[in-house]
Design a protein that fits this description.
31% of the residues lie in helices and 26% in strands. The chain is of the alpha+beta class. α5 packs parallel to α8, α9 runs antiparallel to α10 and α11 crosses α12.
């Protein structure tokens, strides 16, 4: 728990207006009240022992910048840049003039000497790059041009801001307007262009398929798996499956709700209402990827390197080979599949009463799309069939389970709203492509409640798993979202005031939600909702039990998408170990 505030303290002390603070100022800025003030004090002590901060009387501040700085260089369009130290310093970032970059490009890890400590024009201290320790990127994509008889590539993106000279144009049969992948061999420096070698010719710039390939090459993405990984996936798919070691819930009415173009199905749900007890039993059944992908194996190494499935226009680059992601792991309709199931018992108001976890075998009764499921809930069978992606007609039992799911999701949402869940209404658009891959239309994303239905249930599962391990005092990889600081809320308060809305000096989560509710139909709605979004910190992965501010969750972990997110697979392995140790598997 003491680590709960360490990163936030460093972030606050790194601000221009927060370079020095006492304990009380820090507690107020971090919105730490009551017992949390003691946690702030403990966090400060940890940082002092780590030599990350220092005390000047009663005030706490970051350490002063030394003679050298190691950090990541970020260049500006005008050629100069800044280096952010790996160890935060109270002077802020180190300014590097255009003639002092020593060939560094944006994203490089560099070692710098500090030349002027009093800052540059009242800003950062100044220095020069002495050594590039690690290139952030060496493979780039770009478009071939010819200027004054020289062959050049104009790079995509912003890391390389000037053309790169190419010497081997004839060897690659290059012509103007072709998109290429190149490796940077000589970095640009001062007024000298960088140099590169073309490694791949993709095709004519501007073609959607070529541009997609360029993005993949620039970011090191691949739509193919090495042969040894494919073979390992094939072997894993044939791994012996012993149903008798699992809870057999194949007769339980279950279904999935996904986008119409979904190919892998991570999650299925089941919902039963007990009229006598006035309780629901919600089952969230998640593909048991951990059964097929074992730690340390080549398949696991590839999944960890990819980290997640990547979604590009009209193309998905899966984390796992399709024989697993679209095959034996996927909770497809009408086939037996292994799952890790979370069973949650809830009362009429959607309040959790009990939770249990099992390794199961399920058989999904129906694959719904979002609009199909919503149409069935609305009683529009004709529209529902138009949005269906399977020939299976939902049974009465499936439709009843869907109706109960709708009731339960609304009860859960009301409970979360009572607790202050942040609900932003921001524009979401769907791009429509023609046969050539060009965008031909843009339209708003559908507002079917079935999206919220699935979201509410996935959050319940993620919370349940995080609660389990918190109760065991066992660290797992959590998804955390800290509270915004007081400084982050200043701009929101000013913008809301300009539109006639007041934000308290120390707003709670419920205060923010009341502001969002009050402005939903106001002309300033979009501006204020974006302003609230900007106050929120970024969610991240951490073993620290901080909770998730926006979801009003005290404990939260990613568990529900192990086919496409490696962190979820890690949590599944923790669950598998717990089930084995407690003999519930």
């Amino acid at each position: 728990m003491p680590h709960r505030y360490t990163k936030r303290i460093l972030d606050h002390l790194s601000r221009e207006d927060g370079r020095s603070a006492d304990v009380h100022e820090l507690a107020r800025a971090l919105r730490a009240h009551g017992d949390d003030k003691d946690i702030v004090r403990a966090s400060i002590q940890i940082l002092l022992e780590e030599d990350s901060i220092e005390k000047d009387g009663d005030r706490i501040q970051l350490r002063s910048m030394g003679e050298e700085v190691v950090g990541v260089f970020r260049a500006t369009r005008r050629g100069f840049g800044f280096v952010r130290s790996e160890v935060p310093c109270r002077e802020g970032d180190l300014f590097v003039a255009r003639g002092a970059t020593n060939g560094a490009i944006s994203g490089d890890t560099v070692r710098c000497t500090v030349a002027r400590r009093h800052g540059w024009k009242g800003g950062s201290p100044a220095g020069r790059v002495e050594e590039v320790l690690e290139r952030g990127q060496t493979i780039f994509s770009g478009t071939v041009v010819k200027k004054k008889g020289a062959w050049l590539v104009e790079p995509d993106g912003r890391r390389l801001r000037n053309p790169v000279l190419i010497h081997d144009a004839g060897a690659k049969n290059l012509h103007v307007g072709v998109k290429v992948v190149f490796e940077l061999t000589v970095a640009p420096e001062n007024d000298y262009l960088g140099e590169g070698v073309v490694t791949q010719v993709l095709g004519e710039a501007g073609r959607p398929d070529v541009e997609t390939q360029a993005v993949m090459a620039a970011f090191g993405l691949s739509d193919e798996f090495p042969p040894e990984v494919v073979n390992a996936a094939r072997d894993a798919s044939q791994r012996e499956q012993q149903i008798d070691e699992r809870e057999d819930v194949r007769t339980l009415t279950t279904f999935t709700i996904d986008p119409p173009d979904a190919r892998d199905f991570d999650d299925a749900i089941s919902v039963m209402w007990n009229e006598d007890d006035k309780e629901w039993e919600l089952g969230i059944h998640i593909a048991d990827v951990a059964h097929f992908v074992r730690p340390g194996e080549v398949l696991d190494e590839e999944a960890r390197a990819r980290g997640n499935s990547t979604y590009l226009p009209r193309l998905v680059l899966p984390m796992l080979p399709e024989i697993l992601s679209n095959g034996v792991c996927s909770l497809q309709e009408g086939v037996d599949r292994f799952a890790k199931s979370v069973f949650v018992r809830l009362d009429e108001r959607g309040v959790v009463q009990d939770t249990r976890f099992r390794s199961t075998c399920i058989n999904s009764d129906k694959r719904f799309t979002y609009l199909e499921a919503q149409a069935w809930l609305d009683g529009d069978a004709k529209t529902a069939r138009c949005h269906s992606r399977t020939d299976t007609e939902p049974t009465k039992a499936v439709l009843e389970a869907l109706r109960q799911a709708d009731r339960l999701a609304r009860a859960i949402r009301q409970r979360r709203q009572r607790h202050g869940m942040i609900s932003l209404e921001l524009p979401a658009s769907v791009l429509e492509f023609n046969e050539e891959g060009h965008v031909c239309d843009v339209h708003p994303e559908d507002d079917a409640f079935t999206h919220t239905l699935i979201e509410m249930f996935m959050v319940e599962a993620n919370e349940a798993v995080a609660r389990l391990f918190d109760g065991l005092d066992v660290s797992i990889l959590r998804r955390i979202h800290p509270e915004p600081s007081m400084d982050d809320l200043a701009n929101l308060r000013m913008m809301a005031g300009a539109s006639g809305f007041q934000v308290p000096d120390d707003p709670s989560r419920k205060d923010l939600q009341r502001l969002l509710d009050a402005t939903r139909d106001h002309s300033a709605s979009r501006a204020i909702h974006f302003a609230v979004l900007k106050t929120l910190t970024k969610a991240e992965y951490s073993p620290t039990a901080i909770g998730h501010f926006a979801l009003a969750s005290e404990h939260y972990a990613h568990f529900t998408s192990p086919i496409r997110r490696y962190p979820d697979l890690i949590v599944h392995r923790a669950m598998e170990a717990w089930l084995e140790l407690t003999a519930n598997g």
